[in-house]
Amino acid sequence: MITFQLEFQILEIQNKESLSSVITDLNIIMEPTEYSELSEFVSRAEDRRDLLMFFRSLHFFVEWCEYRKCTFEHFKEKYSEAVRLPEGAASSCMVVQSPRQPGFELVIVWRIQIDEEGKVLPKLDLLTKVPQQALELDKNRVLETAPLGFRALLGVLGIEAALESLITSLCVGENH
Amino acid sequence: MEWANDKSKGGVLAHLERLETQMSRSCKNLEDPPRETAESDLGTKIHKLRCLRDKLRAEVKQRQARIKASTANAEPDQTLEISEQEAVGGKEENMKAILQAYRFTGLSGKRTSRGVCVCISTAFEGNLLDSYFVDLVIQKPLRIHHHSVPVFIPLEEISAKYLQTNIQHFLFCLCEYLNAYAGRKYQADQLQRDFAAFLAGPLQRNSLCNLLSFTYKVEPQGRSFPFCARLLYKDLTTTLPTDVTITYQGTDASSTSWEEQRASHENLFFTKPLHQVFTSFARNGERLDMSLVS
């Protein structure tokens, strides 16, 4: 849960044709959360005095975080031997380990960013961890191109299907 | 009784003595208990009377205290009523203020006889802009009774996607589109209003304000050829352009300084709101003037 306190000032100018309102001051005090991306967003909203953007972006940010948590929990449940959540389901990282080859690990980092304009975007990256021996055997440089390939996969299949295909490819032959 | 001999004389006296003792003994037996019962009766009576007296005294005290208290409260009671009224009135004001404040979250609503009327407020960088409303009828299926959303906002598309399944998402999505439109419109209006001196021709824009075309100069009274700008905002939920094309029509178009300027302008238009770009042009112009003077 995210708790915050808002203080703002509005200047209303009434001229002959219309009433114009401008937010002249905005102070946001947010309780520290597990989401590191929020503090930068909060100070940006304060600088721009964009109160409405603050509420809107916060809503979408929280929705994305909920979705990420649900997705991680779903995969942890479905592939319990292969999937690990070292920092919990509410964190940004999920580790997929091959049960038969524990030296091979795929780390999926799923960050939720709020850009300059307040748009909330998910950003997923793939990190690989393999034994030195495997690295030497990798003539086709699959491991080097894996992060890029993952991005492309995301574009084609979407988040859930891309993660599912990644997990199943590492756990070939397992019965689920 | 017989007075016969000494024995009987002794007998008579002894007899009398015996009778006397008997009598005194029986008198004793008769007298003591009555005294006790009389005493104890009186004692109980006294005790009862004392209890009654204490009870009555206590009651009198209570009544006196009540009278005192009620006379003392006669005035404060009135003031209590007034301050209660004020408190209720103050609470009402507070509630009204809170309901008004919800407008500043961007989404607020009120119940109607049919359902709910949602008000979407828009703003850009602290400037509060127009509000739009969507009147929803709570029925199966949920439908929009009427609304003030402009025709060029894809309301049908958004409601087809989300209205029936996730009304919250529908509202926030619509909020995004409307705020982005309001922000683009604000930028275009500001450009026309405050920086007309920089424009070499009219600002061409469509109703969605996502395609802007204009010619501009970096200095208001500059003798140089103007730049042509074409800004396209493909993503309707953003207030910054996705495509920027700046061309320079001057005869020395190939010179590097103009190319550098053109490229830097393109970058500016990508990253800053329109009116801020022109504010920085104005500021640069001032700096240039200052350097010429000194």
From TrEMBL, chain A:
<protein>
    <submittedName>
        <fullName>Centromere protein P isoform X3</fullName>
    </submittedName>
</protein>
<dbReference type="Pfam" id="PF13096">
    <property type="entry name" value="CENP-P"/>
</dbReference>
<dbReference type="InterPro" id="IPR027801">
    <property type="entry name" value="CENP-P"/>
</dbReference>
Automatic annotation (TrEMBL), chain B:
<comment type="similarity">
    <text>Belongs to the CENP-O/MCM21 family.</text>
</comment>
<dbReference type="GO" id="GO:0031511">
    <property type="term" value="C:Mis6-Sim4 complex"/>
</dbReference>
<keyword id="KW-0539">Nucleus</keyword>
<dbReference type="Pfam" id="PF09496">
    <property type="entry name" value="CENP-O"/>
</dbReference>
<protein>
    <recommendedName>
        <fullName>Centromere protein O</fullName>
    </recommendedName>
</protein>
<dbReference type="InterPro" id="IPR018464">
    <property type="entry name" value="CENP-O"/>
</dbReference>
<keyword id="KW-0137">Centromere</keyword>
<keyword id="KW-0158">Chromosome</keyword>
<feature type="coiled-coil region">
    <location>
        <begin position="46"/>
        <end position="73"/>
    </location>
</feature>
<dbReference type="GO" id="GO:0005634">
    <property type="term" value="C:nucleus"/>
</dbReference>
<keyword id="KW-0175">Coiled coil</keyword>
